[in-house]
Amino acid sequence: MDFIGAYSPSHIIFLLKGFSVTLLVAFISITLSFIFGIMIGVLRYTKVPVISHLLAVWVETIRNLPLLLIIFFTFFALPEIGLKLDKMAAAILALVVFESTMLSEIVRGGLNSIEKGQIEAARSSGLNYLQTLWYIILPQALRRMVPPIVSQFISLLKDTSFAVVISLPELMNHAQIINGKNINYVIPIFILVALMYFTVNYLLSLVSRRLENKYI
Question: Where located (predicted)?
Answer without folding.
Answer: Cell membrane
